[in-house]
Amino acid sequence: MRAISISAALVLGAACTTTQGTRQSGKTPDVWVRDIQLEPRRGEVGRPFEATLTWRDNYIKEPEFDVTGLPPGVAFDPKTRTIKGKPKHAGFFTVNVAIRKHVVRETGHRPTPDERWWPASFQVEIYNPMKD
Fold first, then answer.
1. CA-to-CA distance for 45 and 84, rounded, in angstroms?
2. Model's pTM, two decimal places?
């Protein structure tokens, strides 16, 4: 028997929270992201799975996402901010999530501190269904 579990893979299982390395640039306020969470944290092979990504921020209207390490059979939907699907394989998967303010890419654009990625990692556990 195996199932899916997503748990913060940080010190003592806490969520990723940091504001280091940011400074006000231009006319916009400092940008920060805190308390990145992914819930629920468990599921089963072949059964519908849906986990919601949440966080707190102070100035992100159109976030960009980078999500890697998802179990086979599930995908991230940036519009609904959810991971959905039917996992195909049992196991433990490290899901890496990064969030940042939408960046307009122009020729000669130099990144500002407000454009940094805010990362978090979660342990996803996929279990085989229980037999009756």
1. 13
2. 0.70
Please provide the DSSP assignment of 33-98 as one string. EEEEEEE--EEETTS-EEEEEEEEESS-SSEEEEEE-PPTTEEEETTTTEEEE---S-EEEEEEEE
Total count of residues recorded for the chain: 132
- Return the DSSP state at 28: S
- Residue 122 to residue 93: CA distance in whole angstroms: 8
Among the CATH numbers 1.10.10.10, 2.60.40.1120, 2.60.40.10, 2.30.30.40, which is that of 7-127? 2.60.40.10
Using one digit for the tens of pLDDT, what is the confidence trace for 43-83? 999 999 999 999 988 877 788 999 999 999 999 999 999 99
Structure tokens at 59: 């100035």
Q: What SS3 state is found at 19? A: coil
Using an 8 Å Cβ cutoff, are 123 and 92 in contact?
yes
